[in-house]
Amino acid sequence: MDASRLRQYLEFYQDLGIKTVYRRGTPAAAAPAAPAAVPAARPEAVPERPAAPTPSLMELPSLAPAGDTLLKIIEDIGDCKRCRLHEARNRIVFGVGNEQSPLVFVGEGPGADEDAQGIPFVGRAGQLLTQMIEGTARKEGMAIQRADIYICNVVKCRPPGNRTPEPDEMEICGQFLFRQLSAIRPKAICALGGTAARALTGSRDGVTKMRGKWQKWREIPVMVTYHPSYLLRPYNEGAKREAWEDLKKVLHFVYD
Ligand code: URA
Predict the structure, then answer these.
(1) Superfamily of structural domain 70-255
(2) CB–CB of 112/227 below 8 Å?
(3) Tens of pLDDT, residues 203-248
């Protein structure tokens, strides 16, 4: 692979948050070590350490192809079995809404209702998200419906028992989220909850610390706010107010 291609890959991986590329074949650490004591008189007896295999393109996550489209990404996902989340899923939940939307909401991963229907944010949390988008827009004098916006998740298959996606699952599925965002190129992104915030910003800070301030994914502004599931829990009145404030900020930034 030439240097400029390698640089392209490394930059792409950095955006994906991938820090380690695993090599198939004999790991370097497991390669036969040179014998502890080699008689000086017979240097030719020292076994040559086998050259580390060069990772082939086939083993690397694909770069976003030029002229990428959501359709192409769906085709590439196919009947995905790249991580363990495929084992219990019913449907791959790719994304929904206006494919030219200037605003994209990113959640964590499908729940039971989403897994059954193949559409993100259709359960209780989804209904709250719809109310939040449409209610805030109405109050702010904007004619915006949920269908005008694009909504997707970091992972496309339901984590069993709605657990938080594991880092390797986020890395593997993250390549498709980033291709979605690159294909749509929205004016802003709203990250719902800690998993989406971490996937997009790479920061380990909590939502409480990150929310309300603009972050960035590549050059696109990202607003982090609370996940609607969190807002559904009792005694979260303060967080609800803050989420509404965050949403107002996003809607005005994108649509004014
Ligand atoms: N929670 C998410 O993060 N995404 C969904 O699609 C539904 C619930």
Answers:
(1) Uracil-DNA glycosylase-like domain (3.40.470.10)
(2) no
(3) 999 999 999 999 999 999 999 999 999 999 999 999 999 999 999 9
Cβ pair 108, 193 in contact under 8 A: yes
Cα(157) to ligand 1 centroid in Å equals 10
DSSP 211-247: TTSEEEETTEEEEEE--HHHHHSTT-HHHHHHHHHHH
Residue from 89, 92, 153 to probe ligand 1 pocket by mutation (most atoms less than 8 Å from CB): 153
> What are 114-129's pLDDT values in tens digits?
999 999 999 999 999 9
Which atom of ligand 1 lies at the shortest distance from residue 119's CA?
6
Q: Where in the chain is the domain with CATH 3.40.470.10?
A: 70-255
Residue whose CB lies within 8 A of the most ligand 1 atoms, among 149, 229, 232, for a mutation test:
229
Ligand 1 centroid to Cα of residue 120, in Å, is: 6
Which pTM was predicted?
0.79
